[in-house]
Specification:
0% strand, 77 residues, rod-shaped, 77% helix, 2 helices
C-alpha cells in the first residue's frame, strides 16, 4: 500500500508543474496575441496576464528539471 501512495505522490510531482507550465505558456501566448485582435477598438498587450504567465512558466520548468536531474543522477533512469 505504501508503494501505491508513493507512486501517486510521484505522479502528482510531475503533473502539477506540467500543468503550471502549460498554463503559463498559454497565458503568455494569449496576452501577446491580444494586441493583434482587430475586433477590439484599442488592442493592446495584456501586461498582467503576460507577467503572470511568465511567473508560472519558469517555476514549473525549474521544478521539473530538478526532478529529472536528481532521478538520472541517482541512476534510476
Amino acid at each position: 500500500m505504501r508503494t501505491v501512495a508513493s507512486r501517486f505522490i510521484a505522479i502528482l510531482l510531475l503533473v502539477i508543474p506540467g500543468l503550471a507550465a502549460t498554463y503559463g505558456f498559454l497565458a503568455m501566448k494569449d496576452a501577446w496575441f491580444a494586441q493583434f485582435d482587430h475586433t477590439v477598438p484599442d488592442p493592446h498587450i495584456l501586461w498582467g496576464k503576460l507577467l503572470w504567465g511568465r511567473c508560472c512558466l519558469p517555476q514549473a520548468s525549474r521544478f521539473s528539471a530538478a526532478g529529472s536531474f536528481s532521478a538520472t543522477a541517482s541512476g534510476i533512469m
